[in-house]
Structure formats: C-alpha cells, structure tokens
Design a protein that fits this description.
- The chain is an alpha/beta fold.
- The protein has helices at 5-13, 20-29, 43-51, 80-87, 99-114, 177-187, 217-222; strands at residues 70-74, 91-96, 141-145, 160-166, 188-198, 233-239, 253-259.
- It has one domain (5-259): Vaccinia Virus protein VP39 (Rossmann fold).
- The chain has seven helices and seven strands; from the N terminus they run αααβαβαββαβαββ.
- The longest helix is centred in the middle third of the chain and has 16 residues, at 99-114.
- It is globular.
- Bound molecules: S-adenosylmethionine (SAM).
- Residues 1, 21, 24, 36-37, 74-77, 95-98, 101, 147-149, 166-168, 171 line the site of S-adenosylmethionine (SAM).
- S-adenosylmethionine is lined by residues 1, 21, 24, 36-37, 74-77, 95-98, 101, 147-149, 166-168, 171.
- This is Thiopurine S-methyltransferase family protein.
- GO terms for molecular function: S-adenosylmethionine-dependent methyltransferase activity.
Length: 261
C-alpha cells in the first residue's frame, strides 16, 4: 500500500468505523486493489517459514503428533500468501470482507496451484518433497468471506496454528486495534503463532490512514503489557527481513508472537 492517499484515505474519511468493510468492498468492486496489491507472496514470509520449519521448529507445517497445521491470512486480498502457505504444507485459509476479493483469490489459487511459480519458494531447507509435486503434499486452500471481528465465517469456531498479518492491522482504524489483538488471540491455538510483517514503519503514526503507521504498535498491543496484562503471548522473534517487498525494504520488521498455553 503506497501513499496514493487521495483515493484510499478519502474512501474512508466520511465513513463510520463500522462501515469500513463496505469501503474496502467498494475499492475491490471499483478495481482499485492495485493501491496495495504486490502481485506475489511476501518474500519475508517465505524466508521465515523456510528458516523456521525444521522438524521441531515453530513454523513446521505439522505438529509433533503429525497433524497438519492450519494457517489463516485475514484480509488476504488476492490470496498470494494463502497459496504459498499451502505449497509449504499448511492447510491455508484466507479471509476477506470483500466478495470480489474472494472471487479473485479463488481464481488466482486455481491457476497458481496448477503450475506454482518459483516466487512461492525461497532458498531455505526443504521438507520432504518440496516444492511439492503432488497435490497430496500440499495443504488445502480455502477462501472465506466475512468480517474478521465477527464469528460467522469460521467453521465450528475454528482455531489456527499460524496467523499472518500483513497490511491488515494498518488497514484498520486505530480504534479497532485493541479488538484486533483480542480477536487474534482468540483465533490462535495454544502455542499457535502470530506472524506480523510490520508495515508501514516509516509513516508517522499521527498521519491519517489507511495505511496507518504501525511503528511500535504491534509490540504495544501484544507484549505482556498489552491486551489484558496477563501475558497471553510471548514474542519469540523480532528481526529485520533480508528480503521483503520493495516498498518496505530497510524498514519492515517481522515479529512472531506465540500464544501462551
Ligand atoms: C490493504 S489490503 C491488503 C490485502 C493483502 N493483505 C495484500 O497484501 O495484498 C487490506 C485488506 O483487508 C480486507 N479487510 C479490511 N477489513 C476487513 C475485515 N474487517 N475483515 C476481513 N477483511 C478485511 C480488505 O478488503 C483488503 O483486501
């Protein structure tokens, strides 16, 4: 999401916060997704998945007892990361408030899973047959339409082992941040991880969004001093990615929070 704020900010400035979902749907319906769409999965996420997915690692696609892990990408847009996570062995779910985005993500996934492009993979250690040549080696891909803050999109109150946030928190009005943190924690299994590619870190947080500047915001929300103060999660990693989308090069950070048991 660059700062073509004439379009993005003006879409939201006269809407109530409760109506922001309609604003995002309108942007999709009027063909404005190029304002944020990067055209491929995040290299930073690919690298961290591949570097922390050895057998006992937190980002391995299977639990120690052999269950395939479930991953969620809220505000997944065209679903690049959903497909990539499936190709790395996770059952991957994308959530979008926009019906148009869900349709575009389904079309992208159908095409991409037929002949996955090299951009889905980095140079990390391989697990078994990786890149997967058989569909059985991949996880499922499913796109759900709904509001992240509601519960009606989830099958049987589904919980996840990995949730990925990129340009989702920064898309939400700051008054929704505490609710974002609570909802994230409620969606994670114990020991599940929230992976945040923090962007934009270079934007003054006092300026209007979206995107809203997030420097310090994830930590404030998720550290043991955040949410309820009861230490619901622990930050396991905080690193500057070597590869990331060009717009965040040199400023993006990756943080990984585990939900405490
Ligand atoms: C800035 S875009 C980023 C999309 C995607 N992460 C990407 O990098 O291309 C934010 C996305 O979040 C979706 N979104 C906004 N609010 C949402 C909500 N409450 N629940 C689900 N999706 C939402 C929008 O439709 C939009 O596609």
């Amino acid at each position: 999401m660059s700062f073509r704020k004439g379009v993005l900010i003006s879409e939201f400035e006269d809407r109530s916060v409760q109506d922001h979902g309609s604003g995002w749907s309108n942007l999709w319906d009027t063909g404005k997704s190029d304002l944020w769409d990067r055209g491929k999965p995040s290299p930073a996420l690919i690298d961290i998945i591949e570097n922390y997915s050895r057998s006992e690692d937190i980002l391995h696609p299977f639990t120690p007892d052999g269950r395939r892990k479930k991953a969620l990408v809220p505000g997944c847009g065209r679903g690049y990361e959903v497909v990539m996570l499936s190709l790395h062995g996770f059952d991957a779910y994308g959530l979008e408030v926009s019906a148009t985005a869900v349709a575009e993500a389904k079309a992208y996934a159908t095409k991409e899973l037929t002949a996955p492009q090299a951009y889905n993979f980095g140079h990390g250690p391989k697990i078994g047959d990786w890149p997967p040549t058989h569909s059985a080696d991949r996880g499922v891909v499913e796109f759900l339409q709904g509001d992240f803050f509601a519960t009606d999109w989830s099958h049987n109150d589904m919980k996840f082992d990995l949730v990925y946030d990129y340009t989702f928190l920064c898309a939400l009005h700051p008054t929704r941040r505490a609710a974002w943190a609570e909802r994230m924690m409620s969606l994670l299994n114990p020991r599940g991880v929230l992976v945040c590619l923090e962007f934009p870190m270079y934007k003054d947080p006092s300026l209007p969004g979206p995107p809203w500047g997030v420097k310090g915001v994830y930590w404030d929300l998720l550290s043991s001093r955040g949410i309820t103060g009861s230490g619901e999660c622990t930050r396991l990693l905080y690193i500057q990615p070597q590869r990331t989308h060009e717009i965040g090069m040199g400023t993006d950070m990756i943080s990984v929070y585990a939900r405490n048991e």
